Amino acid sequence: MAFVTATNNIGFANTRLFYTAWVEGLLAALPIGLILMLVMSVTVKPKIERFLKS
Questions:
Q1: Cα separation of 47 and 50, whole Å?
Q2: How far apart are CA 17 and CA 33, in angstroms?
Q3: DSSP string for residues in 1-54
Q4: 40 CB contacts (<8 Å, ≥6 apart)?
Q5: Are 33 and 1 in contact (CB under 8 A)?
Q6: 54/41 Cα distance (integer angstroms)
Q7: CA-based diameter of the chain, in Å?
Q8: What's the rounded Cα separation, in Å, for the pair 41 and 28?
Q9: What is the SS3 string spanning 10-25?
């Protein structure tokens, strides 16, 4: 997702600027993604599994 966002906003004309934007986007989204992953695996997944077993 960071790659697509950097491509849409910067383009490939300046590779150094593209790489910098990609890394910054990746590092900005990483903590949010990890938190969402943790919440889903701890709270939502067990509820879905219980529902499917019943």
A1: 5
A2: 24
A3: -HHHHHHHHT-SSSHHHHHHHHHHHHHHHHHHHHHHHHHIIIIIHHHHHHHHH-
A4: none
A5: no
A6: 19
A7: 55
A8: 21
A9: CCCCCHHHHHHHHHHH
Instruction: Write the pLDDT tens digit of every residue in 1-50.
Output: 889 989 998 989 889 999 999 999 999 999 999 999 999 999 999 999 99
Q: What is the token pair recorded at 23?
A: 């890394």
What pLDDT does 1 receive? 85
Instruction: Return d(Cα 32, Cα 23) in angstroms, integer.
Output: 15
Q: Is 11 left (phi over 0), alpha (psi -120 to 50) or beta?
A: left
Query: How many CB atoms within 10 Å of residue 6?
Result: 21
